[in-house]
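HUMAN: I'm a chemist; might I ask for a sequence paired with its structure tokens?

ASSISTANT:
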Amino acid sequence: MKDYMNTNEVQQDIDSLKSALHQVEANAAREGRDLNPIEADLKKEIFDHISELQDHKAKMETLDGPVTLERNGPIKSRFGEVGSSINARSYRGMFNLGAHERLGTGGFRDVGEFIRVIDSGRYDPRLIVDDAQTIGVPSAGGFSVPTQYASEWLDASLPNEIVRNLARVTGMTSEEKQVPGWDGADMSGGATHGGLEMEFLAESAEGTKQTAKLRKITLHARTAAIYVDASIELIQDGKDFAENLQKALIQSIGFGIDRFCIGGTGAGQPLGILNAGCKIQVAKETGQSADSIYYGNLKKMFARQLNPDRAVWLFNNTAIPELLEQSVAVGIGGSHVPLLNESNGKFSIFGRPCYFTPHMPTLGDADDCAFVDFNFYALGLRKDVWIDTTDAHRWVQRERSYRVLLRFDGMPTLNTAITPIHGDTLSPIVTLAERAAA
């Protein structure tokens, strides 16, 4: 349910949804393919909501006053709500750019022309050179990617990413950004996050003053680089080389963000969930076989999750055969219910979504299974993207190298597991211990 006070507010939501719809369609068009089932479902849901809002706007114009719009629930994509979750994580959403605000193209007709001008090696007044002195990017030259194309590159990879769609995402406008987090992991005495505790007061009794404890989390704009080599012949004679290069860069951006936010060490790179200080690692079952997953593993992980109703499962693809063989007996001598459930191409365990990614360790290794609430993970991205090209170090091979620089950081917002008032410790990040051969 949402109260709109005027038609401008309705139109803003319509514009926001149209922008999200355009992103879904543009991703497929850019890759020269049809929408996949997930994108098709999302497109239909967005389109239906736009139609609903347009009808609502017409009703407001007729009644000349505020009207409450009632819906059965928020529009959901694979990862979250459209218009809040997805839109806030887009380039425009991160940097508070309006749906109709024009992003700079640098005077280039399209991204293909931008890349071809850089590749020519000739001077062009439209190119903005990175001097590395004022923006702090440790690079030896390079050119600023116009915001329109930086937006396209970052947004095009978003639907296929995991972390950026689920985490607390923020745009960084400086080298560092402070993100607040609650302190006070020991709740055994009845306190909650930050040490706050409920109390009952008798008539005229004075309450106990409490001071919440916050810890400061600092995100640093760490520089990440993507390198691509291509032969001179391919660059000069290859069909649509600039467009294909852009596709490769888009895939690499999303792949890299997920890789380091899941497994990053925190040393000069993001601190990934698998190396979090708050992580709880559940032990294997007694006598458990190597490279196996038991029902007992997953139910114990579920029980140690701080927010099991918000967490998602992460596995390596090598875990799929093992998961498909797991089932739960119903009653004495009854049928068996599969543990891994599938509906419309989406998988779940205990009703929570499952995602399979190569960034997770191989089946049987420590932390190869994770049950994570990404609301406790902060991810910050800088607005600037830089691109550079050289053939110096690949001169003999007749190849040219392309380098893209972007800056981001990420880390869990808790540094230790939670001790509840009753029961075992809990955490938003729960993994499974190694199951190696005895």
Remarks:
- Residues 1-105 form one domain.
